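During the second year of the project, the team shifted from modelling isolated chains to modelling whole assemblies. The rationale, set out in the original proposal, was that interfaces cannot be judged from single-chain predictions alone. As a representative example for this report, we include one of the complexes processed in the last quarter. Its constituent sequences, exactly as entered into the pipeline, are reproduced here:
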Amino acid sequence: MTIVEFLSTYWPRLLTGTGVTIVQFFLAAFLGVAISLVMGLLKLSPNRMLRGFAISYIEFFRGTSLLVQLFWIFYVLPLFGVSIDKFTAGYVAVGMNIGGYGAELVRGGILSVRKGQWEAALAINLSPAKRMWRIILPQALVNMLPAWGNLMIELLKATALVALISVPDLMFEARQINGSTFLSAQVFGTALVIYYLLARFMITPFMRWLERFMARKLGMV
Amino acid sequence: MTQSFDHPLEITGTPPPMVSFRNVCKAYGSLVVLDNLNLDINAGEMVSIIGPSGSGKTTVLRMLMTLEQINGGVIYVDGKPLTHMPKHGKLVPANQRHLRQRRVDIGMCFQHFNLFPHMTALENCMEGPVQVLGMRKPEARARCEELLEMVGMIDKKDQHPSRLSGGQQQRVAIARALAMRPKVMLFDEVTSALDPEVIGEVTEVIRKLVSEHNLTMLMVTHQMGFARDISDRVCFFYGGKIEEQGPPSQIFGNPERERTQQFLSAVREAI
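Output from the structure prediction step:
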């Protein structure tokens, strides 16, 4: 079977799979960014308990395998009475995992803002929350965006693991098609190309645009 | 180190000094930066601090701005303790809430301006009045535009700091500090990072402040001519202490202490 014949036969399933992958990506990204922000800030907290919580979170989610985390959330949590449907379990696991990495980016971004900015914000007597939210974070964001571009591509690729708890994403459909047709080269080759195209023509241009947009908005060009 | 309970809960007097350092000590580890400093600054007075680097000049301002913690002694502003607060009839180290309440009296300009890069000149000035004092935006804008006019930056009010020269940024920074209506203004080597040809535009603004406003000002500077022109009093710092102080005519014209003479002749040499 040529690749053209293959695609003309199986494109609807690959397309719905790709759609699920994209939805998983966006939900996990949203969750991951939120967790990163919270954990990154907590890790800089003067309160030892809060800092300890953030450190434990980051160590756990960066230090253990995403696949094991995914299985824990989907197969083990129900044993403790917490049942989550597979679609939710998928993006939650990926999002929480990426949040562990993102927290370090947020922390690094905040620490990269020059000390004089903190001092000037204190000198006009801004409250600690406003110092962070209005003065430090906007500048930290600009500094950390390039690293976020990388992490978003990692995130997209990590979503392929949700196929292993039967979320019908691109990888799941590819495995199903392969199982019934044994057209391994065609099906996994196509999947490879689709992941690449999503990263190269969706995520990278968007992040580049966001970097330029933020730099312009903040007058830092 | 002097214990804080030796110090009064409030300084009385008519009027009390605007700023009073009482037995203030500051050390970084074993390095003593301020050694039992006593210094009173009266309302409306312009005091310049000069001295070699490492003599504790900048630390005096940073402690008054509460950017550094005090290790001993008490600082009073307008008669009331800044670094400490009264509790059960004694002074105890201030908590963050007390510091925030008392800090409103003090404004500071920095050597490297430290304007917020993501805000325009006007937004930089409005940030404090709107976010801290809770002013309405039109009211804050009017106040800040007036100040930008005063420092000669009104036509650049919508520019971001990256589009402004060092001298222009420093003038905006002065307007930003003044927008909070502080009782005490601190200038920390505000011309040291500037190109020589733009120093004049900043010193001109400070001269104007001295002549037209009754602000209490404390200035750390390396510009001896400027300090002589505008100060009511000059303090020469050496090794964390005030080695000599007096009116500019005395310090620059007829210094008594040998270290002051050495320092001033070394500075003249450099010019």
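The two ends of chain B are 40 Å apart (CA to CA). DSSP finds nine helices and twelve strands in chain B.
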